[in-house]
Design goal:
With 282 residues, the chain is mainly α. Helix content is 79%, strand content 0%.
Length: 282
């Protein structure tokens, strides 16, 4: 909520931070999924996903323009095709930012904040009616967190063993799983455990490296889709413009794709380090 005003003023950092807040909240819900399970929880999760979908296109375009296209501006300042492509991507970013503003300014968003506050403070999940539910509620956090982290680590390690065989969509899911693991590890950083500090830090360092490499690989895939979408938008109305833009898009894509092998190797090494660290929750 702190970042709402920034999003409404079209500040890119506020847009980034509000998305991080959403991801962390969704990770917290996952951490307590067996405790908060219920129809209202599913509604909350769906609405949080809706907000994320309303904000993500603007963020993707902002990263592409500032991180990929902008460095080319000086090098291609006399290239009319590049200038035209850049302007069109700026237009698309402005439109996407407008949709992001509409999302956080909507009645649906405001209603969700009220629903969310009520759900956290007094949702149906908070009233344990049967013995099994009461047992889950009364379970010490260190036991609950250890069980969840062990389960998620097992999934990550299983996917890590087959990393070379994963396609782009599967690597994206692996990145999300690692991100969730990292957030939850930060959530429970001060829960008392034996031998916790050095192992926890090692897990966090490995998770961050995995996240960075897989995130950059995902960015390459997203940027490729953005380029293809821009070219498709031109259709056959101006073949010369289309050819020029295709050439520029190829230059940009080529530079990014040159990093794929390095990023893939970096992710594989970080995943091996992640697998080698002994659990800090035991």
């Amino acid at each position: 909520m702190v970042n709402e005003a920034g999003v409404k003023s079209r500040d890119s950092e506020a847009l980034h931070q509000i998305r991080i807040g959403l991801r962390r909240l969704r990770a917290a819900i996952s951490l307590f999924s067996d405790i908060v399970a219920g129809p209202r929880t599913e509604f909350i999760k769906a609405e949080l996903k809706w907000i994320t979908q309303g904000l993500s296109p603007a963020r993707d375009l902002d990263v592409y323009i500032s991180g990929v296209l902008a460095p080319f501006r000086a090098q291609h300042k006399d290239n009319a095709d590049f200038r035209s492509l850049y302007r069109d991507f700026e237009r698309r970013r402005a439109e996407a930012l407008g949709r992001a503003v509409d999302t956080v300014a909507s009645d649906r968003y405001r209603d969700l904040l009220i629903e969310l506050a009520a759900w956290i403070e007094a949702g149906a999940w908070s009233h344990a009616d049967d013995q099994a539910a009461r047992a889950a509620h009364e379970r010490p956090i260190e036991i609950h967190a250890a069980a969840q982290l062990a389960r998620w680590r097992k999934k990550i390690v299983r996917k890590a063993r087959a990393f070379d065989e994963l396609d782009a969509a599967q690597r994206h899911k692996l990145r999300i799983a690692v991100k969730k693991f990292r957030y939850v590890t930060e959530f429970v950083a001060h829960v008392p455990r034996r031998k916790s500090t050095s192992r926890r830090v090692a897990f966090l360092n490995a998770a961050k490296r995995i996240q960075d490499c897989l995130g950059a690989l995902n960015d390459v895939a997203v940027h490729e889709k953005l380029n293809i979408g821009m070219l498709d938008e031109q259709g056959e109305t101006n073949p010369k413009l289309l050819r020029g833009r295709a050439f520029v898009a190829g230059l940009v894509s080529g530079q990014e794709e040159a990093q794929i092998a390095k990023l893939t190797k970096g992710a594989a090494v970080a995943l091996a380090d992640f697998r080698a660290v002994k659990p800090f929750w035991k």
